[in-house]
Specification:
The complex is a heterotrimer of chains A (300), B (209) and C (134). Chain A has helices at residues 2-18, 23-26, 40-55, 58-66, 69-90, 94-115, 122-150, 154-175, 179-201, 215-237, 244-269, 273-293, and one strand at residues 205-208. Chain A has 300 residues and is mostly helical. Chain C has a three-stranded antiparallel beta sheet, with no helix packed on it. The chains are: A mainly alpha (300), B mainly alpha (209), C mainly alpha (134). Chain A binds chain C through residues 3-4, 7-8, 11-12, 32-36, 42, 45-46, 48-50, 52-53, 56-59, 61-62, 102, 105-106, 109, 112-113, 116-120, 124, 128, 235, and chain C through 6, 9-10, 12-14, 16-17, 42, 46-48, 72, 83-86, 88-91, 102-104, 106-110, 112, 126.
Chain lengths: 300, 209, 134
């Protein structure tokens, strides 16, 4: 049994140090577009790929179902080119085979483009429109708030009116099913609102201070802080905990922290948030200790 | 050493060996033919691996060795190796190990802001939001400036953040779950293990109490 | 040279090693570049390798906004419905990969370059357990 493992290990060890690295290939600068060297394996794989493109791809389905005679004829041309490619491959002329495959692909792309709308589906366009509209609206709201805050006066009012007019026009166009025009107006509104906000807010620093309306709110914050540190242990120490001594130390602090957390939860359940906050803080400190004990210095 | 422990160790070694030698899977026959190095010596090489720290040699591997690209596909070898692309870029301690913000600021890279127009410049918005936090943990400074270099307002507002004071309940826990800042940080932007990059404003002495 | 029983062991261990390698490759995100995205909603079902999208490669050339606003890619792995026909017709990736802004998509293997069996997800970062993944 032991010998079995030793041999296995020996083979593995040998393989690992002797594994050839395809350096020359790996460091080759790809020119645009990277060109496949017509070697047997590459051409063989491309044959398979092109066959799928011609027979089963989403493009092939679309052409077959289209009833468009030109597109179907184009696909037939593509298939003919692929047949030639197969023949060249069989007679070991990989260069020629590769060229036919290139032709087949280009012909098939043409066929697909013939039946395609060349456009994004209506649903996607509408989805994109709605998301952009949501941005414009929320930025307009922000502009209004900033303008009030800064008492910016007439100039911004004029800008806002212009933006709102564009948004309104865009809505009308959308109702008339003119989605492209609607989007164009919306994008213009978007650019304008961006510029207006930048003019007012550029160079500012806003401070979101830490204030809690109630002790319960502060307790929720502490719970989140505790969860965060618990998750950080997984993120930061996953590798380090593979060392037994480190893992033991980390586990000790984590256990300590968990019992404090339970204590805090019990205190909160009784409505004593103030004590619960203090206990949670201690629990979080244990987690910080755990992280530091493994050699990752985090502030806390 | 118990049998179970031994089996565990061997499993671990297999994993390490596999990490080193993914591309050697098909070479067993060759291994059999050439394998004449004493076993101890061979083991020593594997044991230099430090499993606590990924050595630089294992970062930014070329596509064929990165564990997700298929090394049996020729196309994989036409792709650029990240290591080669990152060579001249400013370094960082996490993520791709590239400091992308610095790379952009100092023009190591010049990514386009518009699909077609290489001259178009972003509308950079210089607004800092400071969020106070508890404890001795430094307060968070969110700079719109660096973010608007890469992104448009509509990328975040309102889907991720409502642009209004007090309207966003942000917590580290939600960030770690991939929400709020975590939509990007921890996935494409620097990971949250870089505490100090956001918690960057030290508290004044009186505020600490 | 190896003795006969040793050869048997070697074969057995090779098999074990093979199984383990496959398991490891399928289960381990070890070396994937930070922020690489695996797209495999359809690819493998339709017989192609999964697609690997490299954020690092693209962000050297374009700011996030270009794809996440102009091209309207939602910022959630798995949230975008992209078909090959879309790309050929000039949507999504096809808005740039059309031979004008970037190379056209004739060479399937450049994008369909992932190992079989990969799940759609964003790679290389800390594991997020929440809805942020989808």
């Amino acid at each position: 049994m032991t010998r079995w493992f030793m041999i296995l290990f020996a083979v593995l060890a040998f393989l690992s140090v002797s594994a050839p690295v395809p350096k020359a290939f790996a460091e080759e600068e790809p020119k645009a577009p990277p060109v496949l060297k017509p070697k047997k394996a590459g051409v063989e794989s491309r044959l398979e790929n092109v066959k799928r493109l011609l027979e089963v791809s989403s493009g092939a389905d679309r052409v077959k179902a289209s009833g468009n005679a030109d597109a179907i004829a184009k696909r037939e041309e593509a298939i003919a080119a692929m047949v030639l490619a197969e023949e060249s491959f069989k007679s070991k002329d990989y260069k020629e085979s590769n060229e036919f495959l290139g032709q087949a692909t280009t012909l098939m792309f043409e066929a697909v483009r013939m039946v395609g709308t060349g456009n994004v589906s209506k649903e996607k366009k509408l989805d994109d429109y709605n998301r952009r509209a949501a941005s414009v609206n929320i930025l307009l709201e922000a502009l209004e708030r900033i303008s009030t805050e800064k008492k910016s006066g007439r100039e911004v009012e004029t800008q806002k009116d212009a933006i709102e007019a564009k948004v309104a026009l865009s809505k009308t166009l959308l109702e008339e099913e003119k989605i492209e025009e609607a989007r164009r107006e919306l994008d213009e509104a978007y650019e304008l609102v961006k510029v207006s906000i930048e003019e007012l807010r550029g160079g500012d620093t806003l401070i979101r201070s830490l204030e809690f309306a109630t002790k319960e709110e502060e307790y929720d914050y502490e719970i989140d802080r505790n969860d965060t540190h618990r998750m950080l242990i997984d993120v930061l120490l996953k590798e380090k905990r593979k060392t037994e001594s480190i893992d033991n130390m980390v586990s000790k602090f984590v256990t300590q922290s968990e019992s404090l957390r339970k204590e805090a939860e019990a205190q909160a359940a009784k409505g004593d948030y103030e004590t619960a906050i203090a206990t949670l803080d201690r629990s979080t400190k244990e987690l910080v200790r755990a992280i530091r004990s493994a050699g990752v210095y985090i502030p806390g | 050493m118990s049998m179970k422990m031994r089996a565990l160790r061997i499993m671990l070694m297999i994993m390490l060996a596999t990490l080193y030698g993914l591309s050697g899977v098909g070479d067993l026959a060759r291994a059999e033919a050439e394998d004449s190095t004493p076993q101890i010596q061979r083991a020593a090489k594997v044991n230099t691996f430090n499993r606590l720290l990924k050595p630089p040699s294992e970062r930014n591997l070329p596509p064929a060795e990165d564990g997700i690209h298929d090394p049996t596909s020729e196309g994989t070898y036409l792709l650029q190796s990240p290591r080669e692309a990152f060579d001249s870029l400013p370094k960082s301690n996490s993520g791709n190990r590239v400091d992308w913000v610095k790379a952009l600021e100092e023009k190591y890279i010049e990514p386009r802001f518009d699909r077609f127009d290489p001259e178009k410049k972003p509308m950079v918005f210089d607004l800092n939001i400071v969020r106070e936090v508890k404890g001795s943990m430094p307060d968070v400074v969110y700079p719109h400036k660096q973010h608007t270099e890469w992104l448009d307002c509509s990328n975040c507002h309102p889907a991720i953040f409502i642009p209004q004071k007090g309207a966003n309940q942000i917590s580290m826990a939600s960030i770690l779950m991939g929400e709020m800042c975590g939509v990007c940080h921890g996935k494409v932007a620097f990971p949250v293990s870089e505490c100090r990059k956001c918690h960057s404003q030290n508290k004044t002495a009186e505020a600490k109490n | 040279m190896l003795t006969n029983p040793e050869k048997k062991h070697l074969i057995a261990s090779s098999v074990l090693f093979g199984i383990l390698s496959v398991w490891l490759v399928l289960s381990s995100p070890v070396a994937a570049e930070y922020a690489d995205v695996v797209l495999n909603k359809r690819a493998e079902k339709e017989g192609m390798r999964p697609v690997i999208f490299s954020h690092w490669f693209h962000r050297i050339r374009f700011r996030c906004k270009v794809c996440h606003s102009e091209l309207a890619f939602k910022m959630r792995a798995g949230a975008n419905e992209v078909t090959m026909a879309d790309i050929i017709e000039g949507r999504f990736c096809g808005m740039c990969h059309n031979g004008e802004v970037a190379w056209s998509v004739e060479n399937c293997d450049l994008c369909h370059s992932g190992k079989p069996g990969l799940e759609s997800q964003i790679k290389g970062s800390h594991e997020t357990g929440g809805p942020g993944i989808w």
